[in-house]
Write a structure and sequence with these properties.
Distance between the termini: 72 Å
Low-confidence stretches: none
Strand order of the largest sheet: 1-5-4-3-2
Mean pLDDT: 84
Number of strands: 14
Helix content: 40-55%
Strand content: 5-15%
Order of helices and strands: HEEEHEHEHHEEEEHHEHEEHEHEHHHHHH
Number of helices: 16
Radius of gyration: 39 Å
Structural class: alpha/beta
Largest sheet: 5 strands, mixed
Length: about 475
């Protein structure tokens, strides 16, 4: 513990004698001992010092009074006057002025060197510094051990934050995009506008080098001495979050490969079941698929981002430009989950329509849910429910129906002809089917003459062998276009 003036006066070995009436700073910790013989020591003081002098240049009452005023302005905690050298006793003017400015003043006997006082204060401060360094070292070790703990002791960020909370004696909350990832016992109070109350909580930004802006909130007050512990905890959290990002990135890439193989139907059922089990999907339980599609240049933003705790039981996968959340049906209402996902990602600067698939079991059911979600996302709303079972989704989900091959074979002549001649046959066909075969509506939609529409429909029939005017052929063309959109 850093010494104060009262403790020095109580030390019998020093023989110090208080000769003033001021008591205001007797218990103030002494920052340093300043020995000086200059008439004006103020430029050499920074505050908190115990000033020691023999008064070699304080031969007049005016000089003595001025000396006291200068050390007062500098913030000195006390004045020690050494007798037996220039003065046989402490000058009266010095005592009066010290009492006037409430500066404790004491007499230092000739036998007590100033060095002895300075050494006591320095040793005390060094001991305090050493104790503080040891406390920080012990705290750092405890925090690191709590993060790395395994087995029954838990470990991870939750354990680290629990240890930090005990060390600094206040509540802590780790937040990401306004969602609490690892809350402690207290909730994070908010102002009417929905933002955290900065007067009640201290925000500590946690950088990770990734797109996962995190903030560590500490309930005020936080002791200044604990900020070094918090800073080390912040560094551990930063490293752990970066590691979690990479682990999620690898896991989502692996899950995406399994889902891709499932959708393609390239593996035997037994292999698919084993691979689904490997990524944590129980094929006998019902699951729903939430699907978010982004442009390719932005899809990578979802490769490692953390999700709220509502999705702890879900499997996430990145499949090209699509981000998939495969959640057990028991996780809750699919619409609520989709809205939570959409709002969370929007706060992270990632927005796009979320499609919801139905709840089904078995690999074929997972395929079915995927295509339903993809079909729903195509409607473009923030959250899109599957309105009803899509025939296209059903056929695509069936491994026995080569819908993709059929669609490619049907539409290839039109794609090739459009590419060579800029004829826009596919655009005309899509408009014709969407507008229920009305030539007038198609002509108005595409700003064409009706005869031009008729001519293009004739070209479509000639190139594909399917006549859009016939119901059976129209269904074939409609399915091909639908599969083209979903694929």
């Amino acid at each position: 513990m850093t010494l104060n003036l009262s403790q020095l006066l109580d030390d019998p070995g020093l023989g110090l004698r208080s000769i003033g009436s001021a008591l205001s700073t007797l218990t103030t910790p002494i920052e340093w001992v300043a020995v000086t013989e200059v008439a004006n020591p103020r430029p050499f003081l920074s505050g908190g010092e115990l000033v020691l002098t023999t008064g070699a240049r304080l031969s007049t009452a005016d000089a003595q009074r001025s000396f006291v005023r200068q050390i007062k302005r500098a913030g000195a905690v006390g004045l020690g006057f050494g007798i037996g050298l220039g003065h046989e006793s402490v000058p009266a003017a010095l005592i009066v002025e010290a009492n006037r400015w409430s500066i404790p003043i004491f007499e230092v006997p000739y036998r007590t060197p100033f060095l002895a006082i300075g050494k006591l204060v320095t040793d005390s401060r060094n001991a305090d510094h050493l104790a503080e360094m040891q406390r920080l070292l012990n705290s750092h070790q405890a925090l690191a051990q709590s993060l790395l703990a395994t087995g029954g002791e838990g470990g991870g960020l939750a354990q680290l934050l629990s240890a930090l909370r005990k060390m600094i004696g206040t509540e802590v909350v780790l937040e990401q995009f306004r969602k609490r990832l690892y809350p402690s016992l207290a909730e994070l109070p908010e102002q009417p506008g929905g933002t955290p109350d900065d007067e009640a909580w201290l925000p500590i930004p946690v950088p990770t080098g990734q797109r996962d802006a995190c903030t560590l909130w500490l309930r005020r007050p936080v002791l200044a001495a604990d900020l070094s512990i918090v800073d080390y905890a912040k560094n551990l959290i930063s490293v752990e979050l970066a590691n979690q990002w990479r682990r999620r990135q690898d896991a989502r890439a692996a899950s995406g490969q399994v889902i891709e193989d499932l959708l393609r139907g390239t593996l035997p059922a037994a292999d698919i079941a084993a691979r689904l089990h490997g990524i944590g999907v129980d094929q006998n339980a019902k699951h729903i698929v939430l699907l978010l599609s982004l442009p390719e240049r932005r899809a990578g933003l979802l490769s490692g981002i953390a999700l709220p705790t509502e999705f702890d039981t879900a499997i996430t996968a990145l499949l090209g430009q699509e981000f998939l959340v495969i959640a057990p049906a028991s996780a809750g209402d699919p619409v609520r989950l989709a809205k939570t996902l959409s709002a969370y990602l929007r706060d992270a600067g990632i927005s796009g329509p979320v499609g919801i698939g139905g709840a089904y079991a078995q690999p074929s059911g997972l395929r079915w849910s995927y295509f339903e979600a993809r079909d729903a996302a195509g409607r473009g709303l923030e959250v899109n429910e599957p309105e009803r079972l899509s025939l296209t989704s059903l056929l695509l989900a069936s491994e026995d129906v080569p819908m993709t091959d059929m669609a490619a074979e049907t539409l290839k002549p039109l794609r090739d002809f459009d590419a060579a001649h800029g004829a826009e046959l596919l655009t005309t066909l899509e408009a014709y089917l969407q507008l229920n075969g009305s030539l007038a509506a198609v002509a108005a939609e595409l700003s064409l003459h009706r005869n031009t529409v008729r001519y293009r429909l004739g070209q479509i029939t000639e190139l594909t062998g399917y006549d859009p005017a016939l119901t059976a052929d129209r269904v074939q063309l409609w399915l091909a276009l639908s599969v083209r959109k979903l694929r």
